[in-house]
Amino acid sequence: MKAGFFEANGRQMSRGAILLLMAPFFALVIFAFLYPLGSLLSLSVLEPSPTLTNYERVFDNPIYATVLYRTLRMALLVSLLSLALSLPVAILMANSRGPKAVFLTACVLLPFWSSVLVRTAAWSILLQRNGLVNEFLQGIGITSEPLRLLYTQGAVVIAMTHVLMPFMVLPIYGALRNIPFDYNRAAAICGAGPLRSFWEVTLPLAMPGILGGFILVFLTALGYFITPSLLGSPQEMMIATLISQQIRENLDWPFAAALVGVLTLLVTIITLVFSKVFRFERMLGARA
Question: Where is average pLDDT lowest: 157-166, 180-189, 210-219?
Fold first, then answer.
């Protein structure tokens, strides 16, 4: 097959035809994402006049640097917890068949059937002073009085991990399902035990799914808004909550746009670093 063509239903399509088919997608990206984002970022440097004052405020005030650092730390913690909890689930799903596999898949996909707001509200009920968690801790004698679990960083981390776990499980599960069973059988024939076979065969081959899920959860957690707003305290806000505060309470759109610009730049840098360091295309078997 010649370069610049691909075969579909026995016929070859030119690169121009492919671009024509992709035009609606590109148009949607431009008008639904790039244009609104560009318009918002323009406010940060053009309002009230061409200036970089709004960006100077972001870096000059230590409060905003603290919020940015807290956002990075919590996003990393949520990603690590999601990975630790999702890997065993994905392995169990990949090794299951029949009704058991259907049941496990349904458990992972079930959270998508309810909104993030509903799941976050459920955690607020569980973690309140007279909620199920405090009643359980007092019932087994660990605590003598209700703990302050709600409106803390711990509550935000727990709820965000629960909400974002499916985005970690599914990429890892997909990578594990693509590993031929013969590889582990060959490792066993060569004398490798289950643990060594997993460490030297399964884990390296599943690494694209692990890294893909990790970066997906991490980048999503950086801009998360609903869960930190409902379960966190104003003294421990994340950057998305700060942006909302600047727009809704202070009506300071240029400064909010500057915060969006900093967050966008941060996400772009992290994505490029991950792509450069881990070389996703080589890990997936593509040509360099």
Answer: 180-189
CA–CA separation, 259 and 9 (whole Å): 48
Rg (CA), the chain: 23
Q: What is the pLDDT of residue 279?
A: 63
Mean pLDDT of 251-257: 88
Specify whether the CB–CB gap between 240 and 228 falls below 8 A.
yes
For residues 40 and 262, the answer to whether their CB atoms sit within 8 Å is no
224: left (phi over 0), alpha (psi -120 to 50) or beta: beta
Tell me how far apart the alpha carbons of residues 201 and 180 are, in angstroms, rounded to a whole number: 11
Residue 48 near residue 41, CB atoms below 8 Å: no
For residues 60-85, one letter each, b for 16 or more C-beta atoms within 10 angstroms of the residue's C-beta and e for the rest, the string is eeeebeebbebbbebbebbbebbbee
pTM (2 decimals)? 0.83
Can you list the domains of the chain with their CATH numbers?
Answer: 53-283 (1.10.3720.10)
In the structure, what pLDDT confidence band is assigned to residue 7 with cuts at 50, 70 and 90? low
Q: Which residue, chain included where needed, has tokens 């803390």? A: 152
Measured between alpha carbons, how far is 259 from 201 in angstroms, rounded to an integer?
Answer: 43
Give, in order, the Cα–Cα distances in Å from 31 to each of 20, 26, 37, 38, 43: 17, 9, 10, 10, 18
Tokens representing 197 are: 């076979």
5 contact partners, CB below 8 Å, separation of at least 6 = 12, 13, 14, 15
